[in-house]
Amino acid sequence: DYVIGPGDEIHVQLYGKTNLSVDLTVDRDGLIAFPELGPIAVAGQSFAELRESLLREVDKRMIGVDASITLGRLRSIRIFALGEVFRPGSYTVSGLSTLTNALFAAGGVKEIGSLRRIQLKREGALVSTLDLYDLLMKGDTSGDARLLPGDVIFVPPVGARVGVAGEVKRPASYELVGKVTAAEILDLAGGLTARAYANLLQLDRYAGDRRVSEDFPLADAGKWTLQDGDLLKVFPVTGQEEGVVWLDGNVRRPGKRQFTDGMRLLDLVGGLEDLLPETHFAYGLIERESPVNRETEYLAFDLGAALLDGDATANIALQDRDKVFVFHRAYFREQPKVRVRGRVQEAGDYVFRKDMHVMDLILAAGGLLRDAWLQEAELFRTDPVTLDVTKIPLDLRRVMDADPRQNIAMQDLDDLMVHSIWEFKDPQRVEILGEVNYPGVYPRFEGMRVSDLIFAGGSLREEAFRERAELTRYAIVEGERRELQHVSLDLRGILAGEPEADVFLKPYDRVLIRRISNWRTDEVVRVEGEVTFPGSYP
User: Fold this and answer.
1) Distances (CA, A) of 230 to 90, 117, 158, 167, 202
2) Neighbours of 239 (CB within 10 A)
3) At residue 252, does pLDDT exceed 90?
4) Is 430:354 a contact under the CB 8 Å cutoff?
5) For residue 324, how many C-alpha atoms fall within 13 Å in the half-sphere facing its CB?
6) For the segment 391-400, what is each residue's pLDDT rounded down to a tens digit?
7) How far is CA 64 from the centre of its chain?
8) How far apart are alpha carbons 220 and 183 in whole angstroms?
């Protein structure tokens, strides 16, 4: 159905009495110069009509010659894409282009553009209207018309819209065309999902200066005509399951089971082979929702009486949504435990195991930290009857070597304390204050001098007084720090590297670097950013 026009190329192949292959271009007058036949008017014909007429002329006027007629290079046409498209303007497109090709060339439809009323105008008249919903949701291309030179594709602003939310397959905002019911818009949205609650749809709409809500079932959706701004909500079914019971605890196959009328406890639990070892038979629990006030109730049962003794009264009747719990024996007694504290990777409580030794507990805690004090740890042992506590000293070096005299067997309630080396060796510190870049407290090492401390403090600041410094010497006496000595240092000699001036430091020494007297820092302001001459100014 392609319409031939100026610029199109017709490929003609003649064979038989005359053999010739030629490409014929349609001129401005709509003519082609056909070999041996002369000018032939072709513009305005469809390709099918052109092919049929040319074959008829060849058969009539060129005896003994057959022809093959095909389309060659197609002409380009200029069209206009206007309105709510991303790139409105004039475009040169192929002669085979359709409305959708033009929309792609113009960057597509804006969010405020209509997808359902795209207009094709030709010589000022409305030729057709494209509804992209038919194309996108149904695959219907019948409205995607072929373009001609000078055609105008106009996308008007979007019309009335409604929203569909909740349990539909395509929740979105949909444009309305004409009278549309809630049932029709649900079809556009792909229908309801499997989780949708069909007995309750809710329609929110504007009524004058207020917003109102209307509820109705799916069966009545065809009775509700939608308006601009409506929001249709589809709710899910409730999460509450019906017709089920649950089994949990010390059983081999915990989980959900179907509930049937007349179902009893042993129908759910099964036999001994369905229980795990160490089951507590004397007590089990059923969690049940009261049908009267929906409060949770708990019913105890004797699994041993029902399963082992065959007591029919203990085989309790179950109700829909019951949850049955079968317990392990350990649930009703505190598990034996031991504790490790101090310098291990993971301090805390651990389950006591038979034949557990001190090294086993340390390894369970991730091992010792780097600063653990190996010479002595303490194991506090509690008598389970009298609750008296006994301290057992341990050599951790021999414990970690698995020496049986130190790596002793542990008992329930044992508490192991691993100390830090810093508890037994006070860290030595020295301090520098005043005009250095990083004043503060620093670790002291053996042979440390004043120059080492100045270097650790980031060296002297520009305003530092470089002639003298002050050293205050302290000592710890009866748990208190007391000043022992205050001396003046030859700072110039220290900076010059003179050993007699650069004294050795002792623990707790404090060095003070004073500021030059009357030192004054220039007062400046700083200008940065988009100025011609950024910088500091007095």
Assistant:
1) 37, 20, 15, 17, 10
2) 6
3) yes
4) no
5) 30
6) 999 999 999 9
7) 76
8) 8
Q: Look at the domain 337-423 and name its fold.
A: Outer membrane lipoprotein wza fold like (3.10.560)
The residues pairing with 258 across neighbouring beta strands, listed in sequence order, are 244
**Predicted pLDDT at 476:** 67
CATH of 76-155, picked from 3.40.50.2300, 3.40.630.30, 3.30.40.10, 3.10.560.10, is 3.10.560.10
438-452 mean pLDDT? 92
Per residue, the 3-state secondary structure of 146-199, as one string, reads: ECCCCCEEEECECCCEEEEEECECCCEEEECCCCCEHHHHHHHCCCECCCEEEE
Identical topology for domains 9-71 and 244-332: no
Q: How many helices (H) and strands (E) does the chain have?
A: 10, 32
Nearest partner of 119 among 92, 136, 143, judged by Cα: 143
Q: DSSP state, 451?
A: H
- CATH superfamily, with its number, for domain 161-236: Outer membrane lipoprotein wza domain like (3.10.560.10)
Share of the chain residues as helix, strand and coil, in percent rounded to the nearest 5: 15, 40, 40
Which stretch of 76-90, 314-328, 458-472, 518-532 has the lowest confidence by average pLDDT? 518-532
Strand order in the sheet with 118-122: 89-94, 76-83, 152-155, 118-122, 125-130
